[in-house]
Specification:
The protein is an alpha/beta fold. Helix content is 42%, strand content 15%. It contains 11 helices and 11 strands. An 8-stranded parallel β-barrel has the order 2-3-4-5-6-7-8-10, surrounded by 9 helices. The protein has a two-stranded antiparallel ribbon with strand order 1-11. The model has no long low-confidence stretch (mean pLDDT 93).
């Protein structure tokens, strides 16, 4: 009997009344809190041109978080590979892995993490160039390999380092790729729940053991808002709903405080879209989320759960992650989840 591993996804959200600097300090505070609570890893996303999200430079934040913690794994959730040359990613992650050995994860996504206009500003003259996600991952693997030491282009630091690569996805396309490459798979069910089950099934049924991973390994990212009572959690979650509404409508705003009712803030069609987007959410007291999480874990047979929590109050967010950790520690699995074993 064992509890499922649990981790954190952080967007360095900027709450109304705060600055990005405040958000970064809160991220470090959360990482230190999560480390004490037994969270396995702390991942940072890459987003651009969003006033409420300050995680536009995940590798920089990874160094800040890793430097302020001691044991928790720190990673990208993820680095959006169309925005970066594989060599630069290898060098940056190689630098982090050299500074913080055996603690750095590299999660990779195929989307730009922003709107098309901003993506063009990021990529410049490369914007019209076709992006080959599988090829770039293979290039990264080559740069990290000890066998690349005879190449004319080398990643220093990075070469010969054991930096686990994870494929991120929100559709079945990424499931096929992660399976074919024999890499662990992290699904973004916190905003794209529709294809979660089919993507997991595709990944597991098509998985090919690789030199880096012996068996399928699935991480699902979910929304969690936990509080001492169901009523308080429902109130806190209105911040998350307002955040998602801003994504749906394109109206950019800082992370907003909770409201008593969302009825005046959205139209019925917007509400339906937001509720669909946030379909994999666990909201309530420990007793409430324990029931729903138990069903979810049994249904998906996850190897690891990753939680993102858009909560306005930093203290309430810390408490939410504490309640989640306590809940997951109490959910015993009849069989241990597949261990993440890199060959």
């Amino acid at each position: 009997m064992s509890s499922i591993p649990y981790s954190v996804l952080d967007l360095a959200a900027v709450a109304q009344g705060n600055t990005p600097a405040d958000s970064f300090r809160n991220s470090l505070s959360l990482a230190q809190h999560a480390e004490k609570l037994g969270y396995r890893r702390f991942w940072l996303s890459e987003h651009h041109n969003m006033i409420s999200v300050a995680s536009s430079a995940p590798t920089v934040l990874m160094g800040y978080i890793a430097g302020g913690t001691t044991t928790i794994r720190v990673g990208s959730g993820g680095i959006m590979l169309p925005n970066h040359a594989p060599l630069v990613v290898a060098e940056q992650l190689g630098t982090l892995a050299s500074l913080y050995p055996n603690r750095i994860d590299l999660g990779l996504g195929r989307a730009p993490g922003t709107d098309q206009v901003t993506a063009q500003a990021i990529r410049g003259s490369r914007f019209s160039t076709a992006h080959d996600f599988p090829r770039d991952i293979q290039q990264l693997q080559t740069y990290f390999s000890a066998g690349n030491s005879t190449s004319s282009v080398r990643a220093i630091p990075g070469e010969g380092l054991d930096i686990p690569i994870y494929i991120l996805g929100s559709s079945t396309d990424s499931a096929y790729l992660a399976a074919a490459m024999g890499l662990p798979y992290a699904f973004a069910s916190h905003f794209a729940p529709g294809q979660l089950l089919s993507a997991i099934a595709i990944y597991r049924s098509n998985f090919r053991p690789s030199a880096s991973l012996a068996a399928p390994y699935v991480i699902a990212c979910v929304n969690v808002v936990a509080a001492d009572t169901d009523a308080e959690a429902e109130w806190l979650r209105t911040t998350q709903q307002q955040f998602a509404l801003g994504v749906v409508t394109g109206k950019k705003a800082l992370l907003q405080p909770p409201v008593e009712s969302m009825s005046a803030l959205w139209e019925p069609a917007e509400q339906q879209y937001v509720e669909q987007m946030l379909g994999v959410s666990f909201v309530g007291s420990k007793a409430t989320i324990q029931q729903s999480l138990t069903r979810f874990i049994k249904q998906t047979q996850l190897n690891e759960l990753m939680a993102v929590s858009h909560i306005y109050s930093h203290e309430a967010r810390l408490h939410s992650y504490q309640l989640l950790a306590e809940t997951l520690q109490e959910i015993q699995q009849p069989e241990p989840a597949n261990q993440l074993v890199f060959n």
